[in-house]
Fold:
Amino acid sequence: MSMSNLPEVKCGILSVSRDCFIISLSENRRKAIVEAYKKYGDLYEVQKTVENEADMLAAVQEAKDAGCNALVVFLGNFGPETPETLVAKYFDGPVMYVAAAEETGKNLINGRGDAYCGMLNCSYNLGLRHLKAFIPEYPVGTAAELADMIAEFQPIARTLLGLQGLKIITFGPRPQDFFACNAPIAPLYDLGVEIEENSELDLLVSYRAHKDDARIPSVVEDMAKELGKEGNPYPDLLPRMAQYELTLLDWMEAHKGARKYVAFANKCWPAFPSEFGFEPCYVNSRLVSRGIPVACEVDIYGALSEYIGLCVSGDAVTLLDINNSVPRDLFDENIKGTKSYTLEDTFMGFHCGNTPLCKLKKGGVKYQLIQNRLLENGNTPDITRGTLEGDIAAGDITFYRLQSTADGKLRAYIAEGEVLPAATNSFGGIGIFAIPEMGRFYRHVLIEKRFPHHGAVAFGHFGKTIFDILRQLGVEDISYNQPKGVRYPSENPFA
Structure:
């Protein structure tokens, strides 16, 4: 499925030159970067080189006229610190600053650019003006090295553009005893994210209005094709779920307003199955595979985190409970000795069935066992059907979350690890996760800093990119799983 709910980045590169340096040095180095970047795709080359403020205005306008929504400012030599930093003020989109490395020891008179020095002045001037721009870990390089850095900037730019255009739509308050998923609104606005909160009744009225929608049969057909015969034991349920999928998609289009992109955070129990006649999990899984997160239990910052992961990876993500420990016997029989992990490095990530089918070893529509006990007395399931269940496929993952504290301060965590191939022998959309030093991370980050039980999962190692994005968003408190021997501030040194 196409990710139509994510921005498309068109990135340009703009070179700057200090007027006491040879301008061709900066221009030729810019051309070399554009050539080196061809292995990744197209990079629009702004022809106007910036030496003064008038040049800056002309160059920024050229980039805008070309449709660029992200920009690389390249210091081909020392660079004019005032005009080059004003680019970040006048260009409406993410801006990255990089600098040229010197090319050869045989040409350090007319061929020396001093961009290594110029980047210091550039950074200082950006700070004076309170301008946000992205500067890589080591922003000085050859054409090939800078092309690699620009490629790494693309998912960062995509995420920043996505958040500028994002609206999170919610239905219903959090379920009782889920206060951990608190969602102060002010930090969302600080991030540039819009929010629209609705009642479950609004959703129910809209769902009923979609009864007998002419599009339902085609959605049912698509669902049946996706699930296959084995994964579709309740074909009679598909029309209800197709009606719901159309309800959410129509609401999204009708309520985008001034925004371009949407994420949902919806209440899914306990009243939902009784009134709608099914569990919404499978529909949620289908939408996230299209780039539209639908977070469970009205988890607004969970939806936000999922959307960040979608922009970063360009692939489906999921939201899971950091759910249960791995039993010792299961660990000893199936994991111990195959990897270097200890039992405390592992846990099970679970949700009822929102993880997309493409991320499961093998999945199908089932019923929510816990809700079946509660709502149907454990009898033959009807309204509690609709989960998508199966073990999550083995592979690399990044477990992460951006969250506001109750007093409105943003904090986050990132931990890279993997889903292990061992069978869970359990229900729901579930996997055995392994993260190095998870036990200490669980105690001194997740518990100590009072993070909710939900974590977002991106399928691959994206910690570096997510960290850079969080820094760009102004998040100062970013935790990660400390290596063995590196103590957390709250960790007992005598333990």
The longest strand covers residues 395-404.
